[in-house]
Write a structure and sequence with these properties.
Topoisomerase I, Chain A, domain 4; about 60% helix; Gyrase A, domain 2; two-stranded antiparallel sheet; alpha+beta; 2 domains
Length: about 190
């Protein structure tokens, strides 16, 4: 296959891979009734005037299936961490005993599980749209290469490879969504 077609395919594969990675990160943030340290990913704490990720000012762990424990490295960071968690609006109220902050993950109601599944499906749909947009861009690139002298059969082969990549990554999205849905609905 033509070198330019290979470049388009590599770029397409890379972008689709990024879409999957983003989906997996988003799915980790959706809690399924079990404690997970990912529930506090992305929370920024005011650390002496500098906004710093929570995991860089404390140890975060799950001592049991229903609790996330946050142990600040400095005792005077308890209040800023607690404030940051409240502002992040993750749906869990922090409890602090002066040394450690605990997040008790409440059990999910059936209604909340259904909402979470809906949210998971929406993330999946958004990712599929992103993958299809990458496919469209790749096909446009291949068409412009053909106008610049690429043989038509090379362009068609390239488009067929792009479609195979699209199918592969859409299938991966389906599997990720299905696994997360099963995780959420398991009581």
């Amino acid at each position: 296959m033509d070198e330019l077609v290979d470049m388009v395919l590599d770029e397409t594969r890379e972008k689709m891979e990024k879409s999957i990675k983003h989906l997996e990160e988003e799915l980790m943030k959706i809690r399924a009734g079990k404690a997970s340290t990912h529930v506090v990913d992305g929370i920024m704490v005011d650390y002496y005037g500098v906004m710093t990720p929570l995991n860089q000012v404390s140890n975060i762990g799950t001592p049991d299936a229903k609790t996330v424990a946050i142990q600040p490295w400095e005792k005077n960071m308890i209040n800023p961490i607690e404030k940051a968690i409240m502002q992040a609006n993750i749906g869990i109220t922090p409890e602090n005993n002066g040394e450690i902050i605990r997040l008790n993950v409440p059990p999910l109601t059936e209604e909340r599980r259904i909402d979470l599944v809906r949210q998971v499906k929406q993330e999946g749909e958004d990712t599929k749209v992103g993958i299809r947009n990458v496919r469209r861009d790749a096909n446009d690139d291949l068409k412009s290469l053909q106008k610049d002298g690429l043989p038509e059969d090379e362009q068609k082969n390239g488009e067929s490879e792009v479609q195979k990549l699209t199918d592969k990554y859409i299938e991966k999205v389906e599997k990720d969504i299905e696994a997360k849905e099963k995780d959420i609905m398991t009581v």
